[in-house]
Amino acid sequence: MDLIRTVCRQYTHPCLPILLFFFLFICVPRPAHAGGIPPNPALVQKIGGTISINGELRTQMNGGEIRVRVLHENGVPFDPPAETTGLLISGCYVLYIPLYDAASQPGGAKPDEILGIEIREANTLLLVTEPAGGALVINQDSPATQIVNISALQGPGGTALYTGEELNENVARWDADKDGKVSLPDAIHALQVVAGIP
To answer: What are the Cα distances from residue 160, in Å, to 54, 59, 88, 163?
Structure first.
């Protein structure tokens, strides 16, 4: 701080505050993690591709507010998160999935782990139809970008993967005897409700 005061006293030019701002906030490098890329590029798998919703290929012009996330098999987000908002000018999405490393990324994707893709448009969850059920396994042996084209449908959405809370809510909905399990009597009750039989 004393150095800055000394420089300011010796060089009292009206542009000095602007130059200091430029230097401190634009020229000084910031960590890459702030931009959503994990700190170690060797510990990420880059995926990208196109997005089609209801059979319509989305571009930057008609992409709206599209958000893509990749989650662990149990629905828990990665640390750091693997998500992106919007499409590139090419019409593709790109995101970085952190790979597991015990020391630096314990929350990363493990080899052969089944991951879930979640896609939202204008904060509405869509049903992922491609890859099937919204599930994917990344190729951790390839340094190249893995192409994952996504197809989704508007309406009640989601992936085939549920969080623990969502699973409990779905079980409770059809659990007639409230024992925390879906048994044969519960399944019969669910079929009767769906069919409109009292």
So the answer is: 18, 26, 27, 10
